[in-house]
Amino acid sequence: MIFSGKKTEDATIVELLASSLRRDIAFGTLLPDQKLKIEALRSRYGGSNHSMRETLRILATEGLVEATAQCGFRVTSATEDDLRDIQLVRIEIERIALARAIALGDVAWEGRVIAAHHALQKAEAAVAGAPDDLVALEWDEACRTFAQALIAACDSPRLMDLHRKFFDQSRRFRLAQMREGKLDWAARKARQKSLLDAVLAREESTALTLLQADIEAELKTH
Prior knowledge:
Layout: H1 9-26, E1 35-36, H2 38-45, H3 49-61, E2 65-68, E3 72-75, H4 80-104, H5 107-129, H6 133-151, H7 157-179, H8 185-200, H9 204-218
Antiparallel strand pairs: 1-3, 2-3
C-alpha cells in the first residue's frame, strides 16, 4: 500500500523538536546566524542524531535554518532586508488567499473567523497588560489562528502552506516589535475589527487594504 495515515514514533519526536526550535528561534533564544551543533541541540532538546538532523532539515525547508556544505546548520539571518522581503511575500500571498476565501467562504467559515477574532482580542488585551513569555506565546498563537482562519476558505492547500511558512518566518520580528513596545494596541484592535467587518460583508477591496495595513504595522521596516 502506497499511502498511510499513521505517524511513526520518530516523526512525532521530530514534530516536537521542530516546534521547540521554532519557538526558541521566534523568541530569540536561538539568535540569528547562531551555529546549531547537533550535540549541543540534543543536550538541550533531546532526541537522537537522526531526529535532530531531520528537524533541522525541516526547519531549513521552512526558511528558519540554513544549511551549508562546510559549516553545518545555523539560524537564518534577521536583517532589515529579510524583514522587508518577508513582509512583501506575506502581503502578496495573503491578499490572494483572502480574496479567494471571501469569494468561496461559507457561513461555517465566517463563524470560525469570528471565533478566531474573539480569541485574538482576548490575547491582545492580555499581552498588552503583562507581556511575559507564556502570555506572549499564547498571543503569537492567536495571531496565527486568526491569520489562518481568514484565508482558510481559499481552497488551496499550497497557498495555506506558503502562508504558514512565511508566517513562521515573520514571528521573531513581530515578537520583537511586541517586546520593544512598538505595537499600537488600540490601532490594532480597531483595524482588526474593521477587517473582520469587511470580510463578513464580503467587501473584498476594503478587506485586502486592511489586511495589508495590518501586516505592514506588525512587520515595520525602517
